[in-house]
């Protein structure tokens, strides 16, 4: 499977890309806002998990 096919499969798993046809400008703005909020939530979760992992690595390194 090529990388592009893999990216499409992963994106489809999350319902992306979403069709933007027929969406009003207001709906697009709302959709973008929701995506930005979701990105912030994912980044916070990643930061938390990286902190947990770093703590575990430090614990086992001792």
What can you tell me about this protein's structure?
The protein has helices spanning 3-13, 25-61. The protein has two helices and no strands. The chain is elongated, with a radius of gyration of 18 Å. The model has no long low-confidence stretch (mean pLDDT 88). With 62 residues, the protein is mainly alpha-helical. The longest helix has 37 residues, at 25-61.
List keywords for this structure.
mainly alpha, 62 residues, elongated, 2 helices
Give a nutshell description of this structure.
The protein has two helices and no strands.
How widely separated are the two ends?
42 Å
> What general outline do the C-alpha atoms trace?
elongated
Mean pLDDT: 88
Instruction: Report the structural category.
Output: mainly alpha
Count of alpha/pi helices: 2
Question: Which range does the strand content fall in?
Answer: under 5%
User: What is the number of beta strands?
Assistant: 0
Please bin the fraction of helical residues.
Answer: over 70%
Major sheet characteristics: none
What's the alpha carbon Rg, rounded to whole Å?
18 Å
Residue stretches low in confidence (pLDDT < 50, at least 5 long) are none
- In N-to-C order, the SSE pattern is HH
